[in-house]
Amino acid sequence: MQRRSRHHALFDRVRTPRKFPGFLKVASVCVLVVGLLSPLAQATPAAAAASNDYCGGQCSDILPPGENGNATLAQILLNQAFGTQPSHAEDQLGPYNNLATGYSTLTDAKINTFFNDSSFGVASSQVASTESPAGRGDVTIVRDKATGVPHITGTTRYGTEFGAGYAAAEDRLWLMDVFRHVGRGQLTTFAGGAASNQGLEQQFYRNAPYTEADLQAQIDNAVANNGTRGQQALDDANAYLAGINAYIDASDSGRYFPGEYVLTGHKDSITNAGTIDHFKITDLVALASVIGALFGSGGGGEVNNAISLLAAQEQYGVTQGTKVWESFRERNDPEAVLTVHNGESFPYGTKPSDPQGEALPDSGTVTTEPLVYDATGTGADQSASATSAAATATALSSARRGMSNALVVSGKYTASGHPIAVFGPQTGYFAPQLLMLQEIQGPGISARGASFAGLSMYVELGRGQDYAWSATTSGQDIIDSYAVELCQDDYHYLYHGTCTAMDKVEQKNSWTPTTADGTAAGSYTMRVWKTKYGPVQYRATVGGKKVAYTTLRSSYMHEADSIIGFQMLNDPDYVKSPQTFQSAVQHINYTFNWFYADSSHTAYYNSGDNPVRPSGVDPEFPVWGQAAYEWQNWNPTTNTSDYTPASQHPNSIDQDYYVSWNNKQALDYTTASWGDGSVHRGNLLNDRVKKLVAAGGVTRSSLVKAMADASLEDLRGEDVLPNLLKVINSSTVTDSTAAAAVTKLQTWLTAGAKRTETSAGSKTYANADAIRILDAWWPLLVKAEFQPGLGSDLYTAITANLPIDESPSAAHGPTGSHAGSSFQYGWWSYVDKDIRSVLGQTVSGPLAAQYCGGGSLSACRDILISTLKTAAGTSASTVYPGDTLCSAGDQWCADSIVQRTLGGIKHYNISWQNRPTFQQVVEFTSHR
Fold this sequence. Notes:
The protein is an alpha+beta fold. Helix 17 (681-695) runs antiparallel to helix 18.
């Protein structure tokens, strides 16, 4: 049958539709709905053939809010007026939410109360519908009753991929359309000029200003460089596109296309005038560039690093200032939790003994390269300016692009003797979700799992016949900054001694008000100046010489290359062992940690095109754009170079267990982001899994419990608060306000330091006042502890490298507040090391100085008590000031997770959990 599209919503940053105009009153909505509803063909249940499945019913997955991400105009209006949901739009949200209060009594038998059964195929009694897209005889799409997930089975490769494209459009057409416009820097023209739309397109265009020719060249190169598999990928992509476009035509003529096209002015609800543009192959590269930038491109921030280093040297002198800076940078902290924890070293990004070619800016000369020109109307107002500044800061910050976790235990330590994995990506929460579930069975393809919408010709994270895989963001540095000396004017630079013109790339956007986005008319031009060393991001002087700082990423102009690795992961004739799994993910050039489990083995591999730098180059700082400091054998035309061999990437097979929550991968392997120190959210997983492994007999339910328990933990409470209280309690607390606060914090700590409801659905935290106090206390104590010793300038500079906090209620990460993912970036390691030092405890890799009270225990105690008293007196309405969703002082709501609407369908907010968005629980019982 032809499935009705329900609307899509992207990031809150893309757009959150405003309330519809007053004429859409309930009565009017009812009239409109009657006119817009059309009869749907009834599907005839039919059995779907299952491929070989070696999981024995022990594979599960979950992806909230639901599989159906399209909605017709009628369905959107009903949702807006009455809150009704299209079928399968939010049926995975409840089970996902309920784990937070239900995990404590979890057993293996209850796992699928909170997850879906991800066995291959659909039992005949569970078939909801069967269709042959576009009347094809070589593919069927079966949807199950429970979740509406498409199970695509093809007898030809072309038909299989055609079905995958058709199913993707059925479930995510609007979202796919939004993302292809984001990737091209054309979102405002397509979806409206809201400030959030402006910010999103600016954020991505600055770092990936691709022309149509650039996008096509990436496809041509990926095909040409990968032989038979490259040609197969091209054929698969074309078949996938044909399926998408067939659905566009069918839904357009049948008038069941996503209602957002009407609300944004692209289609007329009465006459059906207007068009939905077909997808083309370069759209897939534009989509891939967005996903890669969000989750798989570690590095950047070299100019910010230089600014904070100079501030440290100004405060302390060059020698001591450099030592202080390095202690806060924590490149290779000996106390950091590691994914490969067997002692094996994988040196990368380490500090050279004699740095060469550094191009540090003259103090106070750095300016950010403008992106927006010729702005008019709402493209030039105060809101637009603020949004543009925020987008620039996000685009140019050092890599704070984490998220996702993994817990994998070897069969040696499980009850069954088979490995167990609980893993998945944290990709934020959206309506519809950025990912979509599917099963694909056809010649050379056999997999079920999640894929990013519009890139689902293969399963990207999921399971095969007898193995499963997943990924977390790794963040090693594949981005470098070069200082190019200017010549002639501001738009020419010296390249190998020749004055060379920069290339100007522009995108002109304009918008007018629509029903979905009432932002008044406006326009602007985004302009990027490109050099052979990448786009210009800053300007400054170095030693009095005018320079432009550029950013060069190894995956730049190579967004399409990773398709080969995903193709291999889906191929049951390729992946048959840990070694072949590692070989497959070596073809993925984005920076990810990859995990694998089958019935006998586990494995890990860190992917990414890690450029080989000259031995004297320090990747932490900008270097001169000169031949001596370029990547080894770098070709500026193709942006290719020598890359570190696979053996030098952190990798492992059958370690006792693996954990990853975007923590340090291995000894001597430096990641670009700051904060890999003694306290990291990875500790929350490591501590729990290590205990399970030591006890033995690990089960799926016990590993899920470990994940769920960590997902509710306040990292500061579990790992830093105990020593803070030791300092305070080093003498009797005589102040009544401070004493009461200490008692509340200790009670919460004894109870486990979790942010969890008193009971399911209460929307009130247990130990709520202690949580309020810590939320208020943390920023106060950090500033009071460190600013006096660092000085205001250095303190501010380091906070630009690493924010002091990332609590659940804060606006943080790539998705803002209400985003779930928390406690990844903050000063908890600094506080931990400093406080332990003041207490006289042994600290490996200490900070270069003692800061709290200048190292005096009594003075440090006075600072902690003073700031604690202030925090205790700070009202909940101040700590949680409220927003469009929550009233001031509503602690639970401030933390809660929102499925950010990227279209017209809204969902309820759920209790905070710090866990993957898509998640698998797997334990294979046998192997081919």
